Structure to design on (229 residues):
């Protein structure tokens, strides 16, 4: 797993703990852009992230836009401006930046732009578009086996299934499929009582009693053809 990487809580609920307490709801995602974009861009980005963490969205937005002007082909500026728009609840604007990020670098930090785009779509009520991005996230590759294992560690599988996919399926009225996603997450807990309780509380909150789980057809297809997640 890349240093400093975690699926953001604003994208996937929050099984993974933030690195430290902040005013901003968005946990820290440090990206090593110094080598690619130069020290000036890196410093601008760092200051912008600090503003975003402190809830100073206007100042952060200005700095991320300056990165885009200096490096229009660099995904970092669009991603972080998208984060800023997402925190400001400007979801259509966030979706535009995340779509641009997907086009520029779909495998950037192992498909992270797709998770963000799906989140923006979900906030806009465009659930089928969000689900399409999650499907793409699950199926894209191939990546080197060792890298894949580092990123798709069990913690990330738990987070993806229980905090990204299950809530979306529930919003789409697919309670049986949402329960399936939570059950998939439970398989990766390895008996961890705290995480298991957390997932079971989520199930109790989301899923009506006496519901039987049912995997979506597309998930079976992806498992057979791609062998991921």
């Amino acid at each position: 797993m890349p240093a400093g990487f975690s699926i953001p809580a604003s994208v996937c609920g929050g099984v993974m703990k933030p690195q430290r307490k902040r005013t901003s709801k968005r946990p820290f995602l440090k990206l090593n852009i110094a080598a690619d974009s130069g020290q000036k861009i890196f410093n601008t980005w760092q200051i912008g992230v600090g503003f975003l963490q402190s809830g100073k969205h206007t100042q952060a937005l200005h700095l991320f836009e300056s990165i885009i002007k200096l490096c229009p082909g660099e995904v970092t500026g669009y991603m972080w401006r998208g984060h800023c728009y997402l925190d400001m609840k400007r979801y259509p604007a966030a979706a535009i930046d995340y779509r641009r990020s997907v086009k520029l670098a779909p495998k950037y930090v192992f498909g992270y732009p797709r998770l963000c785009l799906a989140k923006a779509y979900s906030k806009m009520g465009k659930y089928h578009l969000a689900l399409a991005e999650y499907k793409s996230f699950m199926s894209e590759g191939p990546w080197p086996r060792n890298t894949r294992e580092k990123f798709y560690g069990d913690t990330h599988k738990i987070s993806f299934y229980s905090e990204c996919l299950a809530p979306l399926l529930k919003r789409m009225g697919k309670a049986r499929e949402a329960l399936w996603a939570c059950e998939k997450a439970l398989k990766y807990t390895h008996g961890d009582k705290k995480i298991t309780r957390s997932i079971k509380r989520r199930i109790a909150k989301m899923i009506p009693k006496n519901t039987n789980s049912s995997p979506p057809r597309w998930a079976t297809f992806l498992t057979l053809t791609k062998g991921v997640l």
